[in-house]
Specification:
The chain is mostly helical. 74% of the residues lie in helices and 0% in strands. It has a single domain (13-186), classed as Ferritin (Up-down Bundle). The chain has helices at 13-21, 23-47, 55-79, 91-98, 104-132, 137-163, 166-186. The radius of gyration is 16 Å and the shape is globular.
């Protein structure tokens, strides 16, 4: 079932042109984001080990994100692209996390919904890349990625619904979806996801 909301403000078409013209640089950022996404799934388990109903789904999520990382790394290796020594800051994610409420329960819900919004933006952007690529392995890879991101966008809402009232979850999701688009709109277009 689709729970995620479509992004409030679509990514400009110019963004995908920047990606295609700087694809090697984008791959480094994409790999970094997959590593972070896998770690994020595991961090929910570390921070909320008492929420046992969600642990199997989060393990699967973390493994799938790690598989994505492996796929991006393979492409990078084939192109002779090395990782930089430092992962760059992600102002987009930082700004979203600043919006999360304090308090264990409120923060737990907010972080799940922020994860959904990030995955949904990822779906939109990876789909743009897939649609712009020529037929072949790279296009197929990015199609798999955006379909997976769509599932992840729904997953984090499903997890929130395990623990919180649906009306509250959807109201908070709407808030984060609107705020995410405002944040995204302020960031410069560059060969990166955010």
């Amino acid at each position: 079932m689709k729970y995620r909301m479509d992004v409030a403000i679509p990514t400009p078409k110019e963004w995908v042109e920047i990606i295609l013209n700087n694809f090697d640089e984008f791959l480094i950022d994409h790999a970094d984001n997959e590593r972070k996404a896998s770690a994020m799934g595991m961090s929910f388990i570390a921070k909320y080990p008492d929420r046992t109903k969600m642990i199997p789904a989060l393990i699967d999520h973390a493994l799938e994100e790690l598989e994505h990382f492996k796929g991006v790394y393979k492409i990078m290796d084939e192109r002779g692209i090395a990782f930089p020594h430092k992962i760059g800051e992600d102002k987009y994610a930082q700004e979203l996390v600043k919006l999360a409420r304090s308090g264990r329960e409120d923060r737990f819900m907010d972080r799940l919904l922020i994860a959904s919004v990030i995955e949904t933006r990822g779906m939109e952007k990876f789909r743009m890349i897939e649609e712009a690529l020529e037929p072949g392995e790279l296009k197929d890879f990015y199609k798999e990625i955006w379909i997976s991101e769509a599932r992840h966008g729904d997953l984090f809402i499903e997890l929130a619904l395990m623990y919180f009232d649906q009306n509250e979850v959807m109201e908070r999701l709407k808030y984060f979806n609107e705020q995410e688009s405002l944040i995204m709109n302020k960031l410069p277009l560059r060969p990166a996801m955010h």
